[in-house]
Amino acid sequence: MINRNDSDLSIRESSNVVNENDLVVNENDLNDTQKYKHLWVQCEKCYGLNYKKFLKSKMNICEYCGYHLKMTSLDRIELLIDPGTWNPMDEDMVSLDPIEWDSSELDSSELDSGELDSDELDSGELDSNEEESYKDRIDSYQRKTGLTEAVQIGTGELNGRPVAIGVMDFHFLGGSMGSVVGEKITRLIEYANNHSLPLILVCASGGARMQEGSLSLMQMAKIASALYDYQVTKNLFYISVLTTPTTGGVTASFGMLGDVIITEPQAYIAFAGKRVIEQTLKKTVPEGSQESENLKSKGTCDFIVSRQFLKLTLDMIFDMHFFRNRK
Ligand SMILES: [Zn+2]
């Protein structure tokens, strides 16, 4: 019996050795992956690796499955606005910390719900930034993205036609809507109102910014009332473009208020996210039920337009709109 135990032990020891070797190999693999990580972008749908160098020329569309990956607001402006015509507005407007947000008061259940979710999942920085103050996080996102806030607004020409356009950027704190994002969009709408310009808002957002509490929620009403003035009082024309992901307070306000609502293929559009619904209702949300294809069949949006044809489509819609109004 003693002998058997001994041999058992030796087997176990040798298996330990094998495991250690495996670990060494894995670490090397990991090092290689880490080392070349900056060269590749992994598709969120098919997990295929897209070479970063060529991704921009392909408009951030996955070369394996055609999924429309997230775009920065700068790339988006380049895609939609004629070269040399972009005039940014209110670029120096910066978020302060209006409610003196204290992240240490946040318990883990709150971290799991709502708006913080999507942005943290995307940047994967929850661990390092959990303790950081709101002000520091704004600073670090400003350095990382080169933007001052999660939306860029301005005027420019779309195939020679002057337009007012606002583009949200998910890479800046999950495109969340705080006071500055709300104020910038409101000012853009008011500018478009005063100058009778057609308006485009490209949405990409995790929703209201929880670090600014109810002040974030008030932006929804502010923007909606500015849009009422623009669309109803002045009878002007607004197109909203929903890109992946558009959720929370953005969906619940200006995202859904477009005279025409365009979405990108397979874009994730929701009010509450899949995980939040499943945790609250204890029901499974079917795969794809919050994607643009399903939403279009329910009448939530008007067109699903691939990125290659987005500028052309916007131009055609404006053509039809202004032709009709001229008559
Ligand atoms: Zn893919």
TrEMBL record:
Zn(2+) binds at C43, C46, C62, C65. The keyword Nucleotide-binding applies. It comes from Lysiphyllum hookeri. Residues 39-327 form the CoA carboxyltransferase N-terminal domain. One of its GO terms (molecular function) is carboxyl- or carbamoyltransferase activity. One of its GO terms (biological process) is fatty acid biosynthetic process. Acetyl-CoA carboxylase is a heterohexamer composed of biotin carboxyl carrier protein, biotin carboxylase and 2 subunits each of ACCase subunit alpha and ACCase plastid-coded subunit beta (accD). Acetyl-CoA carboxylase is a heterohexamer composed of biotin carboxyl carrier protein, biotin carboxylase and two subunits each of ACCase subunit alpha and ACCase plastid-coded subunit beta (accD). Its cofactor is Zn(2+). Gene3D superfamilies: 2-enoyl-CoA Hydratase, Chain A, domain 1. GO terms for cellular component: acetyl-CoA carboxylase complex; chloroplast stroma. Its EC number is 2.1.3.15. The keyword Transmembrane does not apply. Pathway: Lipid metabolism; malonyl-CoA biosynthesis; malonyl-CoA from acetyl-CoA: step 1/1. It catalyses: N(6)-carboxybiotinyl-L-lysyl-[protein] + acetyl-CoA = N(6)-biotinyl-L-lysyl-[protein] + malonyl-CoA. Keywords: ATP-binding, Chloroplast, Fatty acid biosynthesis, Fatty acid metabolism, Lipid biosynthesis, Lipid metabolism, Metal-binding, Nucleotide-binding, Plastid, Transferase, Zinc, Zinc-finger. Component of the acetyl coenzyme A carboxylase (ACC) complex. Biotin carboxylase (BC) catalyzes the carboxylation of biotin on its carrier protein (BCCP) and then the CO(2) group is transferred by the transcarboxylase to acetyl-CoA to form malonyl-CoA. A zinc finger (C4-type) spans 43-65. Binds 1 zinc ion per subunit. This is Acetyl-coenzyme A carboxylase carboxyl transferase subunit beta, chloroplastic. Residues 105-131 have a biased composition (Acidic residues). It is found in: Plastid, Chloroplast stroma. Belongs to the AccD/PCCB family. Residues 105-137 are annotated as: Disordered.
